[in-house]
Here is the input.
Amino acid sequence: MPKSIPHTATLSGNSPPALSGKHRRFITRLTALIGGGMFIDGFILGCIGIVMPAITADLHLSLAWQGLIGASALIGIFIGGPLGGWLADRVGRKPMFTIDLAIFLVGSVAQFFVNEPWQLFVVRILMGIAIGADYSIGWPLLAEFAPARLRGKLLALLELAWYVGYLVSYALGWMLTESNAAGWHVILGLSTIPTVIVFLMRLGTPESPRWLMSRGRREEAKALAAEHMGHEEQLDLHAQATVKAQGFGRLFSADYIKTTMFVSIFWVCNVTPYFAIGAFAPVVLQKLGLKEGLTGGLVLNSVAVLGTLIAVVLIERVGRRKLGVPPFFISAVALMCVALFAHASSTLILVCFFTFSLFNAISTTLCGVYPGEVFPTEIRGIGVGFATAFSRIGAAAGTFLLPLIIGSYGVGTAMLIAAGISLFGGLVSYALAPETRGKLLSEASAPARKTAPLATPGDLKSAR
Here is the structure.
């Protein structure tokens, strides 16, 4: 058995060697390609709340249809996450990395031509399936290439790309709606443009050496690792074994059930309040007495981008737990203040909403970090996919139920429910959230009751 080495040291005991220019360029490009998929996901979700009034008037939507169309992409992600993760673990990251975006492109173009509620619902479910698959392919792919000391920041940048896509889409929808320059078909179909660009750029992306190693394809894995991975990660590559068990069952084995529970609950409790409030921000703010609901929603999403930037800067400095746990409790207090003092002051409402948006974004950034780190290679795709699907149960339910709850019980009740979800997420995360900062991937994904052995210089030499 290879002797373990500290994850903070190299073979000589010094600091980890800097990435070569070639490796740095590859990691930058790969981050951009995966971030492009995240940007597109945020893009298709960001404008749906803006155009919902126009869609409702044009297609004569009932409240139920409003909720279903608002949640349709999230329902698709629920299906696509586990399916894409299962396929990525079975057939590889590389083929699925372009296939999923091709499917999304078909759905994006189809939005120009829908003229019935059910057609829009089906098309956006298809797009959601492709995006869900992209989560469970892209995050594992980047985690498996990234250097340990940069992995958290790189994965966090993917979440930033999501928020930027959401904000850009929201801003474009806001401008086009206010100026009456384009109809809802065009606003929704704008996602075609970034999709074509990212799809073409993804062609030729290499397979993950860690996935190849897990399938016993050692020579291919070593060749790709030498070309695209740093020295420390090449050593860590030899710490993983060939696949023994994979699939859904392994997620709920004694080794990983706590990990699966934590990642799923952490994610669902972050995104459920955000999607419920974000998708209908103009409606919520107007119900609270703010006439400029669209403008308030735009600022709300801008604050979320700021929160993600803060997380990107701090994640490798303060660690995962300090960024992931406290924001839940702060968000809960902010939403509770909105519920209890909704009619006291419009300024107070905005401060509370902005506080929620900022800290929720900081914590949500970890949703793009933890899943790629805490599952082993053979179930990393399906692990991310399952957590994605579980999170979208809450997100879709929140998006579907929010207009119904507001219509029946008022905004105050809706905000109290959202505050309760944030509080629950904080308690679970306090109990279960691991600290993975600086750990090599084999260490971060090792079962809690075991320590993953790392390769030594001799192992790497003999492997060559």
Q: What stands out?
A: The domain at 23-447 is CATH 1.20.1250.20 (Growth Hormone; Chain: A;). The radius of gyration is 22 Å. Confidence is low (pLDDT under 50) at residues 1-13, 451-464.
